[in-house]
Amino acid sequence: MINLRPVTISDVKDILRIHYAAVHGLATSTFYSQNVLESWSPSPTNERRLKQFHQAIQDNTEIIMVAESTETGIIMGFGSVVPSQQELRAVYVDPTFARRGVGTKIITSLEELAVHHGAHKLHLDASLNAESFYCRHGYSIVERAIHRLNSGIDMECIKMSKELHLH
Ligand SMILES: CC(C)(COP(=O)(O)OP(=O)(O)OC[C@H]1O[C@@H](n2cnc3c(N)ncnc32)[C@H](O)[C@@H]1OP(=O)(O)O)[C@@H](O)C(=O)NCCC(=O)NCCS
Asked: Where is the N-acetyltransferase domain (predicted)?
């Protein structure tokens, strides 16, 4: 079973490991050059990355949730949403647990949280490899675009959005 809970500072290393494994294992060079993959997800031991994630957790503007196994406590994936900007910012799943519904659990929880915090809609810059996943979850393509990474390197993306309905 999968349990969703808010991130804590002690999860940072796991999150960075999963981010790296997901980008390099699931996004892969079929979609992006090695240069883009390295820039999107540098080494998980990179000091700047550690600081960046610590900061994101402490800032509290972004809601970050982790998905963990109820049996083992192992973190299988994470995601984040910024309700004030109606932005779905991240969904990353450890390749070991890919295609087992972990991403679905994460996105469902983030949408519920977004609605709870007053968002009526979510938009995101989807990576090319994740298009099917977001389509499957009711997101529509707005346009193909370029996403500028923190490093200044550009990566192709697909702008997508979804109207959220209250249940
Ligand atoms: C996209 C991602 C989060 C999906 O996580 P996941 O746990 O494997 O997704 P789920 O098991 O919940 O998949 C649900 C459905 O989405 C679709 N889907 C998910 N991954 C897919 C893929 N690689 N190719 C095609 N369809 C896919 C399928 O319809 C799937 O249902 P199915 O397995 O019954 O066919 C994961 O592949 C990932 O971390 N990718 C790398 C990081 C990334 O690009 N994140 C998005 C940044 S915008």
From this structure: 2-165
Q: What is the pLDDT of residue 60?
A: 83
Tell me how far apart the alpha carbons of residues 97 and 99 are, in angstroms, rounded to a whole number. 7
Q: How many Å lie between the centroid of ligand 1 and the Cα of residue 103?
A: 6
Give the position, in ligand 1's atom list, of the atom nearest the Cα of 129.
44
Average pLDDT over residues 61-88: 96
Mean pLDDT to the nearest integer, 114-131: 96
Residue 144 sits in a domain of what CATH number?
3.40.630.30
pLDDT at 28 over 80: no
CA atoms within 13 A on the CB side of 25: 13
Check: CB of residue 159 under 8 Å from CB of residue 123: yes
Mutate to test the pocket of ligand 1, among 133, 156, 162 (most ligand atoms within 8 A of CB): 133
Strands of the sheet with 121-126, listed across from one edge: 2-6, 63-69, 75-82, 87-93, 121-126, 154-163, 140-148
> How many domains, the chain?
1
Q: What is the mean pLDDT of residues 55-80?
A: 94
Q: Which distant-in-sequence residues (6+ apart) come within 8 Å of 130 by Cβ?
A: 27, 91
